[in-house]
Amino acid sequence: MKITSKWMLWFMLVALYAAIFGGLVYYNMFKFVFDKKLQNEMVEMVRFRAPRLVAALAARPKGAATFAEADIMKSWKINDDRIKDLIYLNYDGSVRWHENTKFLGMSYSDFNNTVGFPTNAVVYAINGRTPKAIMAEEGNTYDMAIPLLAKDAVAGVVNVTVSREGAKALIHSAMVRYCIGVFFMILLIGGVLYLFMLLKILRPLAGLKDAVDAVSLNTLTLTYTPRSDEIGDVAKSVDSMLAKIREDIKGMQDVEIMSLEKERKWWKTILAVTVPKGSRALVVDENNNILYTNFELNSKKEGPVHLLDIFDGRQQNIIQVVGEALENPTKVLRGTVENKNVQCLVKAVQLPDDAGKNRMILVLEPEK
Questions:
Q1: Which fold has domain 3-172?
Q2: Looking at residue 229, what DSSP letter applies?
Q3: For residue 315, is pLDDT > 90?
Q4: For burial by CB atoms within 10 Å, which of 247, 275, 316, 323 has the most?
Q5: What is the pLDDT of residues 72-99, one digit of tens each?
Q6: Do 3 and 11 form a contact (C-beta atoms < 8 A)?
């Protein structure tokens, strides 16, 4: 897997993790905000009418609601479609107003046994003297109990069953917007990240790769535009390595040249002693290139002189002698050859392999 795929995979995993974690955080935050807004609106609705209700409760602590109280309850039920059910209770929990008149005056326990309250919100509100909201019907409604206080004493309770559909719709809408925003944010950040990688990492690396591929043994030079970043440091290291290789190769070549010069001097001494006067001797290497002669070569060729440059391919005798000498090391092979219109006896011997250096000696003696 290439670096681009790895980076993008890690980015997507991190972005997905952040999006899910953020989604959970935002969902709970939206839920808290919109549910709290719904509860506060219900509490404010009751508190706005609380003075009139408390006054009526003080005048008649028990019994059914007055016409004014009943009108208030009906107006709440009619004007706010979020209210699913509404019960108006006296301080002792008995029903003061209900949509169904048969429940009027019924005690808390009897009503709870007959119809049933969704939760114990009324009890908590009376005991705590503060509004209480408890989620009911699998999260679809809130059972809210809002106490009506008269000199820090509970004079009555308004029990409202309010729907969460509006709050849930707002939460859903907010989460949809959150998901859309996260999607475009990931695209934006991912695009910027990929563009950065393309311009600052991928293309420079591709250029460095092409520069390295273009390096040849003839030059051993890296052609690359200098950079001040980490990729530029890698290019400098590669260039420095190539410079060391050039130095090592140059040193090896110098050593080889010195070794050849010493070998030529050695062959000059040996051939001067062993080869008869008037005979010509040649020393060839493993590639049949002329390494040393005891006579001057009149060759205008640049670089190594091959054995066939002296003896053309039509002289099969010397080619045969050289081939047999290669197949029979240390054995002296003989033949005849014509050199400068002079018939010569040729002797060839393949010397033993000495540290990877294969040498053959050819001696040409004019026939008497």
A1: Beta-Lactamase (3.30.450)
A2: S
A3: no
A4: 275
A5: 999 999 999 999 999 999 998 999 999 9
A6: no
Angle between helices 3-59 and 165-197 (to 10 degrees): 160
Q: What does each C-alpha distance from 253 to 45, 243, 265 come to in angstroms?
A: 101, 15, 18
Kindly state the tokens that stand for 341: 């219109």
Give me the residues paired with residue 136 across strands.
141
What is the torsional sign of CA 103, 104, 110, 116?
Answer: positive
Residue 17 carries which side chain, given as an amino acid letter?
Y
Report residue 360's pLDDT band, with 50, 70 and 90 as the boundaries: confident
Q: Which CATH architecture has domain 275-366?
A: 2-Layer Sandwich (3.30)
Q: What is the DSSP letter of 305?
A: P
Rounded (to 5) percent helix, strand, coil in the chain: 55, 20, 25
For residue 102, give the DSSP letter: G
Name the E strands within the chain. Answer: 83-90, 95-98, 132-136, 141-150, 153-163, 280-284, 290-293, 333-339, 342-350, 360-366
Q: Tell me the CA distances in angstroms from 310 to 78, 298, 319, one per residue in order.
A: 123, 9, 12
Q: Would you list the domain boundaries of the chain? A: 3-172, 217-274, 275-366
**Two structure tokens written together for 364:** 């040409």
φ/ψ of residue 226, rounded to 5: -60, 145
Q: How far apart are CA 296 and CA 39, in angstroms?
A: 116
pLDDT at 299 over 80: no
Q: pLDDT tier at 349 (50, 70, 90 boundaries)?
A: confident
pLDDT score for 368: 65
| Residue pointed to by tokens 């290439």 | 2
Q: Tell me 306's DSSP state.
A: B
Query: Which percentage of the chain shows pLDDT scores above 70?
Result: 96
> pLDDT tens-digit profile of 127-174?
999 999 999 988 899 999 999 998 878 999 999 999 999 888 988 999
Dihedral sign (CA 296, 300, 306, 312) = negative
